[in-house]
Amino acid sequence: MKKKILIRIGSLRHGGAEKVLVTFLKNLPEDKYEIDLLLNLYSGKYLAEIPGFVNILYLNKGEMITTNRLQDLPVKTFRVLYQKILKIFPQLLYRFVLKGKKYDIEFAAIHGMRDEILNSPLKTSKKIVWIHNDLRKTEFHHYTDREIQKFFGCDVILVISEQIQQDFETLARTEKEKKKIKRIYNPLDTAEIIRKSEAGNLKPEKSENPQFLSVGTVFPQKGFDRLLRVHKRLLDEGFPHTTIILGDGYDFENIKKLQAELQVTETSTLLGFSDNPYPYFKAADFYILSSRYEGFPTVLFEAMTLKKKIIATDVSGVRELLQGGKLGLIVENSEKGIYEGMKKALSEPQAFREYEKNLNSFEMPFTLENSVNSLIQIIDEL
């Protein structure tokens, strides 16, 4: 008999956790499980990629509302109240939205869904939570030790980097709790990344000056404000270059405003979201990760797959991915660190030859098949 699985996530917007979930679902055997995917909001760029065997359910429909415009407030208020009621009274959700279905496994695909699955009226279901971020540094909620220990109420805690694993292991109160922590690398399709990078219909303009690329959801975590300020400073110091930021998010207008204030609209480009960012990776001279924090920056995996020269702030997962600095330049997690890294790229480009050489002979230790099989094994053993 097929295991019945309920997966919870907010939406399928263009974020790393969403992309990872979709990649996982696309690579599952179609007839192995019976899967319901419950979204708080039926929206996002990745909706179209969900395979047909996955049944999509939702609480609300429509685009995410990130503003407080008067005309948007009624819909925004309704959504918040509706979701809050279903969170406080989960029996209503399971009776009316999920139609009384009994699940073998309930899976929080992001850490923010922890309480939703732990408060499920289905007491016999096994609970899995997927941690994609360093919880001590998340945007809206800095988790305390006590808050993190609540995750041990789940049967399995999936973590995506060594640093997050060590943090959870330190807080495990028993050996049984420690055994709940499972580290698996995010499933990413290397072959698809290479294939998409060669898409003939997308040919980004190649600048005669060195080009830096940064990709991610546009919110403060990603440090695009720091990147633009450093870009301006280096231009003022006589280092010609261009910077491209590829992505969308609630902070997009603020970054656009900062770009205008710094008067760098001619030398920097905000491209918004792209279904295929890989030709931009291919065209860039350097990939730069300017993040303030991460869990495991899968975007670096993409840059490494396309053999890019990398500069990355020292956040969770970076040392693990870049082998302690063998495969790319790791800089201090600050504006000063980003400045020093970019300046080195512009003034001493030969210093990156060793990284290129190491990267060209490097074989990725984590493959799509291994990641998917690891996750299948965890599910099957529950």
Walkthrough of the structure:
With 382 residues, the protein is an alpha/beta fold. The chain folds into 2 domains: 3-185 and 367-381, Glycogen Phosphorylase B (Rossmann fold, 3-Layer(aba) Sandwich), CATH 3.40.50; 190-360, Rossmann fold, CATH 3.40.50. 38% of the residues lie in helices and 18% in strands. It has helices at 16-26, 73-88, 90-97, 114-118, 145-149, 162-171, 175-179, 190-197, 224-236, 252-261, 278-283, 298-305, 318-321, 335-347, 353-360, 368-381, and strands spanning 3-9, 33-42, 55-61, 105-108, 126-131, 156-159, 181-183, 211-215, 242-246, 268-272, 286-289, 309-313, 329-331. Strands 3-2-1-4-5-6-7 form a 7-stranded parallel β-sheet, with helices on both faces. α9 (224-236) links the parallel β8 (211-215) and β9. α2 crosses α3 (90-97) and α9 packs across α14.
Looking at the overall shape, the CATH architecture of the largest domain is 3-Layer(aba) Sandwich
Q: CATH superfamily name of the largest domain?
A: Glycogen Phosphorylase B
Remind me, CATH topology of the largest domain? Rossmann fold
Instruction: Please count the helical segments.
Output: 16
Shape: globular
Mean pLDDT: 92
| N- to C-terminal distance | 14 Å
Keywords, separated by commas or semicolons:
2 domains, six-stranded parallel β-sheet, globular, single chain, Rossmann fold, seven-stranded parallel β-sheet, 16 helices, alpha/beta, 382 residues
Brief account:
This protein has 16 helices and 13 strands. By secondary structure, it is of the alpha/beta class.
